[in-house]
Amino acid sequence: MSRKKEKAKRIFAILAEQNPHPETELNFKTPWQLLVATMLSAQSTDKQVNKVTSLLFEKYPSPAQLAVLTPDELAKDIKSIGLFRTKSRHLLASAKTLLERFGGEVPSDLDSLLSLPGVGQKTANVILANAFAIPALAVDTHVFRVANRIGLAKAKTPAATEKQLTAIIGRELWANAHHWLILHGRYICHARNPHCSQCSLREHCDYFQNKKEE
Fold first, then answer.
1. Residue at which a domain ends, from 132, 161, 181
2. Cα angle at 196 between 158 and 129, to 5 degrees?
3. What pTM was estimated for this model as a whole?
């Protein structure tokens, strides 16, 4: 086993002990709802997204109900979310694409998901892992920062980080690893002033070890 794989195994064993069954903090009941919530979550907090979607899903429970709106009409419902005008256009375009090409159902394969307007690799991987239990490891800003800071990856882009992480983590752990790294970044390993004194991973963390040597 490579040193990186051994390191990953130790780190995720610690995180698994603390949180055996990690889950997304976005509220959803269907693949469609998860798609909407994930698209809204870029540059916003899950807490704010959940506030918006609690009303949005009641008004528009399926792509068919959403697709008849204009971008301005939908924008009014999501205006408390960052980039709401762009997200409004993408959501409506995705809803129409689902109706036209996929019978109104969210597809469960990567290429089809990536064909939806506004859906990139991260969003597609979130859908695969959380809506369909298909192994995928989404790299958002938290995963990117934590993985590279700790030393599980050494990459300049989310795509390269995903490639490096999936090479050292077993497929059965990809979805959980995504959640563990997100939650660790959200509550402990902040972009500014990470809480190293409270971190259970500090003895395995490149950033912390380098800081000790300064």
1. 132
2. 35
3. 0.93
Instruction: Give the count of beta carbons closer than 10 Å to the beta carbon of residue 24.
Output: 21
Q: Are 149 and 189 in contact (CB under 8 A)?
A: yes
Catalytic residues, by residue number, are 122, 140
pLDDT in tens, 70-120: 999 999 999 999 999 999 999 999 999 999 999 999 999 999 999 999 999
Domain stop point among 114, 132, 150: 132
| Phi, psi of 18, deg, nearest 5 | -75, -35
The number of residues making up the chain comes to 214
Decide if 23 contacts 49 (C-beta within 8 A). Answer: no
Helix (H) or strand (E) holding 63: helix 63-67
Tokens of residue 189, six digits = 């390993």
Over residues 20-40, the mean pLDDT reads 97
Over residues 195-205, the mean pLDDT reads: 95
* Assigned token pair, 132: 């369909």
Q: Where are the alpha helices (DSSP H) in 70-198?
A: 71-77, 84-101, 110-114, 121-132, 141-150, 158-168, 174-187
Pair (121, 160) in one structural domain: no
